[in-house]
Design a protein that fits this description.
This is DUF4149 domain-containing protein. It comes from Brevibacterium rongguiense. Keywords: Membrane, Transmembrane, Transmembrane helix. It is a single chain. With 137 residues, the protein is an all-alpha fold. It has one domain. Helices cover 80% and strands 0% of the residues. It contains 4 helices and no strands. The two termini are 31 Å apart.
Length: 137
């Protein structure tokens, strides 16, 4: 979901015919609100699963579990730090107070969190599959 929405849908929507910056921002707000809700729900499931497993950073969680918890932490930081800044900027653009012609530092921060989160999810998934393969022979 992160890869499809953040790195495909978000930039491509602005290339569609007739899409203005305000219209694209409005669509983006809806899409990212839904994405973040799904991410939070999945993060809760992953966190609960890891906590119920009885492992720990040095135990059965291994690299996969630690990377997945890192992705959860990045998501929370992104929502607490970067999202409000991006929302403030998009509010200004939608109110006509900012032309929105260039990416803001807040947007670049948000993108940096997306890249880091995608990397953590990739490492977590691969490490978890390798660990599972080792357990099942």
């Amino acid at each position: 979901m992160v890869l499809a929405i953040s790195f495909l849908e978000a930039p491509l929507k602005f290339q569609a015919p007739g899409i203005t910056i305000p219209l694209g921002l409005g669509i983006g707000r809806l899409v990212f609100r839904a994405l973040n809700a799904c991410e939070l729900a999945l993060a809760a499931v992953v966190t609960a699963g890891l906590l119920l497993s009885g492992g720990g950073p040095g135990g059965s969680w291994g690299l996969g579990g630690c990377a997945l918890l890192g992705a959860v932490a990045l998501l929370l930081l992104q929502l607490l730090l970067a999202r409000p800044l991006v929302t403030r900027r998009s509010d200004a653009v939608l109110a006509g107070q900012d032309p929105g012609e260039h990416r803001s530092r807040a947007h670049l921060l948000y993108v940096a969190f997306e890249v880091a989160k995608a990397a953590a999810l990739g490492v977590g998934a691969i490490a978890s599959m390798v660990a599972l393969a080792a357990l099942t022979g």
